[in-house]
Specification:
mainly alpha; Rossmann fold; Tyrosyl-Transfer RNA Synthetase; 2 domains; two-stranded parallel sheet; 13 helices; 5 strands; globular; binds tryptophanyl-5'AMP
């Protein structure tokens, strides 16, 4: 069986990194896999959230995913907190994972920063909830951007440890699918920093709500070096900003880096940047328009998420029943 699970946090607007690293691939994989896609609101509250904003962001992220082409009839789309098995299994995994494993997680170190003592226990245990998301469905494949690789390795470690503890091959070891030409989209202001929702500069990222003017302005202001583009990929060595923009072009146009350089090698950024902005606008504008249509009908979004949650629950509940029996818990869960 081939089953996909992947998730995205409802914190702020989606950016180009989310789209190229994850969502564009989610859409393509729908034809070949049974797909379960989740807006991970339980993960979002590992850092402080305004409740009204959280509800709004959950709808917005669902709207973007739908607008990008996820078909809620063939794929399952829901928000995590509607299916209680995620939190239930996360607790069991908290009792499987070791402190030493979690201490290695670079994302916790980055997010907790210097004020580690003040980080929530939830932020620390974030990866065990992510393992629960995936394994509550016995998913076999997980399409993500490069930054989630370490969490996926931990998921495999947890699955393996659980299987060893209970003496059977209960969980599959899920495979990461890190696909496409832009698995790690970098900031437009710094080619060595990841494009992220938490960067204070709006100019560091293109979001799914940016209009054509905003996209053009942000790309024109993007940091670059004074050299023209090279004719071959080797020439991008040591030029992180140039590499990032060329990779973004290739991912948007769905061609190779070599194809981009064959066309623009020898040209300066004065020519390349407007061409890149055109490709970005052509790709993103229809998604933004469709997202706005969805956002005008929040009840429709809520109905899609509820239907998805019911279908997800129907898969996770019997698996969780087996896990409860393996663990030795008496009685059935009410959830
Ligand atoms: P999140 O919400 O940070 O990001 C969602 C997806 O976007 C990818 N991504 C990027 N890809 C390329 N370049 C970037 N700059 C970039 N920034 C983000 C992420 O890799 C991710 O695929 N922990 C996850 C959500 C999650 C999850 C899961 C994912 C919860 N449970 C189970 C897979 C399976 C996260 O915070 O993603």
């Amino acid at each position: 069986m081939r089953r996909i699970f992947s998730g995205i946090q409802p914190t702020g607007n989606l950016h180009l990194g989310n789209y190229l690293g994850a969502i564009q691939n989610w859409v393509k994989l729908q034809d070949d896999f049974e797909c379960i896609y989740c807006v991970v609101d339980l993960h979002a509250i590992t850092v402080p959230q305004d409740p009204v904003e959280l509800t709004k962001s959950t709808r917005e992220v669902a709207a973007s995913v739908l607008a990008a082409g996820i078909n809620p009839e063939t794929s399952i789309l829901f928000n995590q907190s509607q299916v209680p098995q995620h939190a239930e299994l996360a607790w069991i995994f908290n009792c499987v994972a070791r402190l030493g494993w979690l201490n290695r997680m670079t994302q916790f170190k980055e997010k907790a920063g210097k004020n580690r003592e003040n980080a929530t226990v939830g932020l620390y245990a974030y990866p065990t909830l992510m393992a629960a998301d995936i394994l509550a469905y016995k998913a076999t494949h997980v399409p993500v951007g490069d930054d989630q690789k370490q969490h996926l390795e931990l998921t495999r470690d947890i699955a393996q440890a659980f299987n060893a503890m209970y003496g059977e091959e209960f969980f599959p070891l899920p495979e990461p699918q890190i696909l496409g030409k832009a698995t790690r989209v970098m900031s437009l202001r710094d080619g060595n920093a990841k494009m992220s929702k938490s960067d204070p500069s709006e100019y560091s990222r293109i979001t799914m709500t940016d209009d054509a003017d905003a996209i053009m302005t942000k790309i024109k202001k993007a940091k670059t070096d004074p050299e023209p583009l090279p004719s071959e990929a080797d020439g991008l060595e040591g030029r992180p900003e140039a590499r990032n923009l060329v990779s973004i072009y290739a991912a948007l146009a769905e061609c190779s880096v070599d194809d981009v350089l064959a066309e623009y090698g020898g040209q300066g950024f004065g020519v390349f940047k407007p061409a890149l902005a055109e490709v970005a606008i052509a790709k993103l504008a229809p998604i933004t328009d469709q997202m706005n249509v969805y956002m005008q009908d929040p009840q429709q979004i809520d109905a899609i998420l509820k239907d998805g949650a019911e279908r997800a629950h129907a898969i996770a509940q019997p698996i969780m029943g087996d896990i409860r029996r393996l663990t030795g818990f008496l009685g059935a869960s009410l959830g």
